[in-house]
Design brief:
Protein name: Nephrocystin 3-like N-terminal domain-containing protein
InterPro entries: NPHP3-like_N (IPR056884), P-loop_NTPase (IPR027417)
Shape: flat
Keywords: Repeat
Pfam families: NPHP3_N
Mean pLDDT: 79
Organism: Colletotrichum fructicola (strain Nara gc5)
Structural class: alpha/beta
Largest sheet: 5 strands, parallel
Number of domains: 4
Length: about 600
């Protein structure tokens, strides 16, 4: 277009007619360019509205497979193998099942990123590109991580970002009316969009759909399995899913040809894991050189006792390595192994009991806060809780006072004499010590991870439960209510208070620790989520300052200028403010 403009400006046309013709041609080019720019902007906006901050959070938290683990899934001699299922003439759902802790999610993560998956699908895909669209349900996570809406948004986003040319057909209403992007996606609209993908006769790509953790789905399981079967009927889409062997999933997928039970196929993987980890320890290497038969028998006993549960092996090896650090001989190691329960719940009970009394309150508080947060917690939140505890010990009434409130919001309201140095300095100087302390005191039930930095996610180290089975164990034994009784305040309000204090220190933390600034929007949403989950009785005692918080955030100029939000995000936040303020006011009135 620039060349056309240059030619027009330097035109030596001898007649008005020729000049008019050139102007007309340029106008057409300009109009086409404007339309293309508008279309690209509309497509980008549609993709942005489908995306959400936790879209890959669960998948990122799942550990990578140990070296050479799950190689059998790519073996063409395996009955009901992946290679045959990905043949052009095959169809139906491929079901991965197995015992809790057997490695189903780790296997699904491997399939989503391994080049061998693409190679196996080559004959089915042909000349078209392959889009691997994955979703990992997470029952302990946020609503979008365990719902139909989250599933559809995740899959649609991954497919459409790779095949944007189908967006005008798949998202026809939003494409035709860009103003509709202000409205949030509903399940019905998402379902219509996905149905249109299925109905396209010749997709420009082939889609391999990987859906993990069906047993962590919060909706109607029958509807979910029906949806997966319906999608699998498309010649352009293949569906692989993973779940525990619950009756409803066995009924839906168990009679099909394409299925594997992970725990029946991992014995060689378990042996390899045991040999690799114990063999690297100098003390075990010395024991092995002295009595090879005894050490081999010991490793085989671990493999047999595991019964295909990789997570159990992971926990056992941690215990054995501690014994080797203590220079245990082979007899002591056997006794250590014999004392470890083969049942995971019994194992967790033993681990809970082994927490030293002096650390129990801190460990139990961490468990409780993680259960309430339904997501990994930044280590900085624990530092903020320490600071709140010190404030309370100084006699400041309640969780909040005006000083804390002003500290939290000062960077966003230009309040003079603001000093967030205390928490920011402690975040810089004590973060590493705190994270090591909490992991050690919780006896391997939680782990440390670093969040993948996005435009919304909070940067820095996080703590989270080491496995979904730990969450199941704590919830099944009523840990939430029992642990709540040990705290002087509601755990939800404790979290909201810690996040409020953290909000005020973001600017200093960003300057000192992070190349990418932390966004206050994510922290504000976490505050609101905890208040929303709290009961009226819980907010009654400490809700007054939360009312002030929501009223202050309910200012468009602050939201837009300091939060860096779009109009749509601003509307979302302002709506949350109004709803939560009403709840907090009712909580305050509860005292009257």
């Amino acid at each position: 277009m620039a060349k056309d403009l240059q030619n027009l400006l330097h035109s030596n046309a001898k007649s008005e007619e020729a000049c008019a013709e050139k102007f007309g041609s340029f106008a057409v080019t300009l109009s086409k360019f404007a339309d293309e720019a508008t279309n690209r902007g509309t497509i980008r906006t549609i993709l942005t509205t489908l995306n959400f901050s936790q879209i890959k959070a669960r998948q990122n938290e799942i550990p990578k497979a140990h070296q050479n683990t799950f190689e059998w899934i790519f073996n063409e001699s395996l009955e009901g193998n992946l290679s045959k299922w990905l043949h052009p003439c095959s169809d139906g759902v491929f079901w991965i099942t197995g015992k809790p802790g057997s490695g189903k999610s780790t296997l699904m993560k491997l399939l989503s990123g391994d080049q061998r998956t693409l190679l196996l699908a080559k004959s089915w895909v042909g000349p078209k590109p392959l889009v691997v669209a994955s979703h990992f349900f997470w029952n302990a996570g946020k609503p979008l991580q365990k719902s139909q809406e989250g599933l559809l948004r995740t899959l649609l986003f991954q497919i459409l970002v790779q095949c944007p040319e189908v967006i005008p057909e798949v998202c026809s209403e939003r494409y035709a009316n860009p103003l509709q992007d202000i409205e949030p996606w509903g399940v019905e609209e998402l379902s219509r969009a996905f149905s249109r993908i299925q109905q396209i006769q010749e997709l420009p790509c082939r889609v391999l759909m990987l859906v993990d953790g069906l047993d962590e789905y919060s909706g109607d399981v029958k509807e979910l399995t029906t949806f997966l079967h319906a999608v699998a009927k498309s010649s352009e889409i293949r569906v692989c899913c993973a779940s525990r062997a619950w009756p409803e999933f066995s009924k839906a997928f168990g009679s099909g040809t394409w299925k594997v039970q992970v725990h029946q196929l991992t014995k060689a993987d378990i042996r390899s894991y045991i040999e690799d980890h114990l063999g690297q320890h100098d003390a075990f290497a010395k024991l092995h050189s002295k009595d090879e038969s005894s050490t081999k028998a010991f490793m085989e006993t671990i493999a047999e006792k595991a019964e295909g549960v990789l997570f159990w092996v992971f926990l056992v090896i941690k215990s054995i390595l501690r014994g080797l650090d203590n220079l245990d001989d082979i007899g002591t190691l056997r006794r250590r192994l014999d004392e470890l329960p083969s049942d995971l719940n019994a194992f967790f009970e033993r681990m809970m009991d082994s927490i030293e009394n002096v650390y129990k309150q801190e460990a139990h508080t961490a468990f409780l806060l993680l259960l309430c947060a339904k997501a990994p917690l930044p280590v900085d939140v624990l530092l903020a809780l320490d600071q709140l505890d010190r404030r309370n010990k100084k006699g400041i009434p309640g969780l909040f006072d005006a000083g804390l409130f002003n500290e939290a919001l000062a960077p966003y309201l230009n309040i003079p004499n603001f000093d967030a140095k205390s928490l920011a300095d402690r975040t810089t100087n004590e973060g590493l010590q705190k994270q090591d302390q909490i992991v050690a005191r919780c006896r391997d039930l939680i782990q440390l991870s670093r969040a993948v930095k996005t435009s919304r996610a909070y940067a820095g180290p996080h703590i989270g439960f080491i496995h979904r089975t730990v969450v199941d164990f704590l919830e099944e034994r009523g840990a939430l209510k029992r642990l709540e009784s040990l705290l002087p305040h509601s755990p939800r309000l404790l979290l909201a208070a810690a996040y409020t204090l953290l909000l005020g220190s973001l600017q200093r933390i960003d300057e000192e620790n992070s190349k990418v600034p932390n966004d206050p929007f994510e922290i504000i949403l976490r505050i609101f989520y905890q208040i929303q989950e709290a009961t009226t009785e819980e907010v009654a005692a400490d809700g007054v300052l939360f009312c002030r918080l929501t009223r202050t955030i309910d200012k468009r100029e602050m939201v837009l200028l300091r939060g860096g939000l779009s109009e749509r995000e601003a509307e979302q936040l302002l709506s949350l403010c109004a709803n939560l303020e009403a709840k907090l006011i009712s909580g305050c009135e509860f005292l009257d």
